[in-house]
Amino acid sequence: MSRALVFLLGMFPLFAADFLPMAVWYGGGKARAPMLEKNARAKKELWRKDVRQIKALGFNAIRTWIDWASGEPRQRQYDFENLDVILELAREEGLRVFLQVYMDSAPQWVGAKYPDSLFVSSNGQTVQPESSPGYCMDHPGVRSADLAFYQALAEHVRGNPAFAGWDLWSEPHVINWATPTYISNPEFCYCRNTVAKFRSWLRNKYGDLDRLNEAWYRRFDSWDQVEPSRLSTILSYADYIDWKMFIADKLGGDLHDRTAAVKAAAPTAIVTSHAAGVGLFASPHHWEGQSDDWTMAAQVDYYGTSFYPKHSAFVDRDSVWRAALLDFTRSFGFANGRGGFYIGELQGGFGTIALNVSPTVTPEDIRVWTWSAIARGAKGVNYYAWYPMSSGYESGGFGLNQLDGTITERARAAGAIAQTVNRNQKLFLEARPPKAQVAIVYNPLAHFVGGRQRATVYAGPQGEVAGIERDSLLGIYRALFETNVPIDYIHIDHLTPGDMRQYRLVFLPYPVMLPEASAAVLRAYVQSGGALVAEARLGWNNESGRASERIPGMGLWEVMGCRETDVQTGDKGRTALKWLANGDELAARWYEETLEPMSPSARVSARFADGRAAAVTSTYGRGRTLMLGSFISAAYQSGPTPAVARFYRSLLEWAGVELPVVTERGQVEVRYLESGSTTLVFAINHSKQPVDAAFRLKGRRFEHRLEAQDAWFTTSRD
């Protein structure tokens, strides 16, 4: 999808990247975020016991918070007492402070002064805040007040030796932490201010009304007639795609403005934000208004994610799920020369939503989860939280310790890791992941074929949707996980020939809708020697929802050396391909696409049960291609088989991918980082049994016994 607006961090002064926080969420006492206890000054010495315990365990920072309602109860009359007490305690006890800012809990005076600033759903119903979700930032008065609060905070903490940085926005959406159960199929925000901003976005994209009318199949006479999509129709759904792309860009712009506000007053403080659920698992259809990770990452020093492997409800959250989430986050964190990512929230204890309670979080979990993040280059880890939640529907959950103050072995395990990181701050700060030779294309447009017909209204914790789009991105990763080959996720809107050169093998899963501009980059990649593997109905639709005349679309049939002659849905959405090279049956999902070779070098490499051509290998320029007539990756995620695992691993050799890790004994996950001439080596045992592991990394042999659910870290010099 093309972006009509681009926001760049380069306009901001550089930050002082000299600190890697290993922090716990602590707001003073036992109040849960974003709530604050009253009379902070009187409780300073009581809180000191907690702060000293945090320090004693090995943590180097506190992630504290402030909500707008508490911080500015009356316009431009600020109350930063809680923050001041935490800063004083941190300075006195030798800790640093990061500040989480919550604007969703907005003061009453904002609504009273700007009564037309309420969030408006697609059906016209408004949302009256009940501690959240606040007011629409697209209202000029609200935006001005919002940014003024950030600037006041920045001026207040500027120069404070304990203050390290910010998280400006926790889990960004248009509307946060408020589900309007009285509205059927809510969607935000349709207030007049957001609609006006959308019209401006459209002017920037299309230039004039005639081009918009052509794209949307409308007859608008003026821009004032243009409204966001609310319907699903049989005609065009370009209007719906534009609306959702605008929402993602708008959220990027909102974060950009907040960054500018704090950077103006405190330019050297670290600025971060973090997603609830990264795009790997979330859908751009989400009714709350879904952000785009690459767009958000461009606005701050570090963007990251919440990380809750044992949230209150499971959605396939095993070791591969965790690894894929972290590698996806690493991918946007280090993209375009950026310096890494933060774990904004790392689950500290069992999760709960009302009566739904997760399995116990163990010290072993904490060790594996934390080292898994650090092994991918995380530049900050923030455990959620020091105490369990003391109120709300998460009451009793997510704490490192007991609510009565009892310190747990989980907290001690986290503190021990923090001590290791603290002793090696420079080493970890400078560490970078190796350049991957394998990439999986992340394509948000894949969700949009059919427009609102595919819309996902509600989802699980952190917005996770267990659909074919997610399964396709996860299946390839799952099949290759045990090879320990580094894998990047690359955003289809940010593909460039220069960036693509490092990859010997690129997977394009579930490619049913592509932006037109990506076709030229993919063509150039293969022509210059790359290996491309694509799945069924490649380029069926473009970013406007228009069908290609020939599939693969956008001229990619030439690159893939074949065309579609027929397509049908498999029986009950399932099918299989017989791989001709070895006779393996490759389970697949949804489509059976019959392919016809169109190039002298093209060969049928798999067939469906009735003999129809199901896959074609070919060459183009100096590169090679494999076109698959179904969705093998999604089928592997939902039902792994040895045959499909062999198939994906054979593609590494087919593309000439070098394996940096060779396992000699014991199956463990091996990751590494490079910090100058030093290599940081991490071995992680995800199983419940001890493992005697031996492996070679870049020619050097390592041997270690890992206990059940354990992680091992060492360094070596080149």
Main traits of this protein?
718 residues, alpha/beta, Rossmann fold, Immunoglobulin-like, nine-stranded mixed sheet, 24% strand
Radius of gyration using CA atoms only: 26 Å
CATH class designation of the largest domain: Alpha Beta
Q: Determine the CATH topology of the largest domain.
A: TIM Barrel
Name the CATH homologous superfamily of the largest domain.
Glycosidases
Strand order of the largest sheet: 14-13-15-16-21-20-19-17-18
The proportion of strand residues reads 15-25%
Question: pLDDT below 50 for ≥5 consecutive residues: which ranges?
Answer: 1-16
Instruction: Please tally the helical runs, counting DSSP H or I stretches of 4 or more residues.
Output: 19
Q: Structural class, please?
A: alpha/beta
Mean pLDDT: 95
Describe the structure.
With 718 residues, the chain is α/β, with parallel strands linked by helices. It folds into 3 domains: 18-179 and 254-429, TIM Barrel (Alpha-Beta Barrel); 438-655, 3-Layer(aba) Sandwich (Rossmann fold); 661-717, Immunoglobulin-like (Sandwich). Helices cover 30% and strands 24% of the residues. The protein contains 19 helices and 27 strands. Strands 14-13-15-16-21-20-19-17-18 form a 9-stranded mixed sheet, sandwiched between helices. Strands 1-2-3-6-7-8-9-12 form an 8-stranded parallel barrel, surrounded by 6 helices. A 3-stranded antiparallel sheet has the order 22-25-26, with no helix packed on it. α1 (44-57) crosses α3 and α5 (140-157) packs parallel to α8 (238-265). The longest helix has 28 residues, at 238-265. The chain is globular, with a radius of gyration of 26 Å. The model is unreliable at 1-16 (pLDDT under 50).
